[in-house]
Amino acid sequence: xxxxxxxxxWMMALVIVAPELDPSPWTxxxxxxxxxxxxxxxxxxxxxxxxxxxITWNHPAGELLQYPNLRCIASLGAGVDHLLRDRSLPKGxxxxxxxxxxxxxxxxxxxxxxxxxxxxxxxxxxERQAERRWSQEEIVTCSDEVNVGIMGLGNFGVxxxxxxxxxxxxxxxxxxTEKRIERVQTFFxxxxxxxxxxxxxxxxxxxxxxxxxxxxxxxxxFEKLRPGAYxxxxxxxxxxxxxxxxxxxxxxxxxxxxxxVFRAEPLPPNHPFxxxxxxxxxxxxxxxxxxxxxxxxxVENYQRMKANKVLLNQVDLKKGY
Length: 321
Ligand code: GLV
Known about the structure:
Blueprint: E1 6-7, E2 10-11, E3 13-17, H1 24-33, E4 39-41, E5 51-56, E6 72-75, H2 81-84, E7 94-96, H3 101-119, H4 122-130, E8 147-151, H5 155-166, E9 170-175, E10 184-188, H6 193-197, E11 202-205, H7 219-224, E12 229-233, H8 242-250, E13 254-259, E14 279-281, H9 291-306
Parallel strand pairs: 3-4, 3-5, 5-6, 6-7, 8-9, 8-11, 9-10, 11-12, 12-13, 13-14
Antiparallel strand pairs: 1-2
The structure holds glyoxylic acid (GLV).
């Protein structure tokens, strides 16, 4: 029998509002942590007054205003831009995001793979393999002469930077506010952006998406990079001005790009990125879903919310991450 929690005459329930996701693995993972949870799945939320905790991914704008007793919103991802773009988000509600070492590990694996694929010319070798052509490319630079510039020095950026230095790259990092990281040359703020870009051969975007970082990967940014630079975007599609990337590739100022995120997802079949010879496309898989690993974090926050305690990984709504 389920324990039914009642408060002021209504039940206490959680709702999953994630129209694009299959909710079953999430419901199962949450109930594996606490079988007594009353979990509803949008749009079958039952009495809206029951809902105190919403678990969301790309919810329909305005939906969260519908729950008069909502106290907390949990993002089903590391990012919260999908939540904060809803201008009608209820005021005064705490928002949390997911942070897990496995997410960081997966992100770092992706970044290393993309950097090394480019640095060791794997794309070119695949083309030559298709032609059965045995042709050895000169390794023109040692990796310690190649500067990898990471934009965004949160959990993901710091871990990727550390691993890249371990395999011999010189790593630069740029963030909004000043950060000091061992063996990484750091830059911060608008004033130091150009100095950072002008020394970068491989640019990795790991920034949160905020009004300040939207469209940051644009023609001006690309112009400042070293000639022949390579761009890896593993943050959000809205960071990239797509026409500016295509233009910089056409002009050969950039040598290529590896993109995991796009302004429209799924990437439309007729999008020029699909068949561009210098662009590698992956379908937003850098981190992936991991309900069974993060469910306990969501349930812990639900319990903390009920006990009026500090929440794990609460988002600073002013900063937007
Ligand atoms: C994925 O993109 C996430 O925000 O976790």
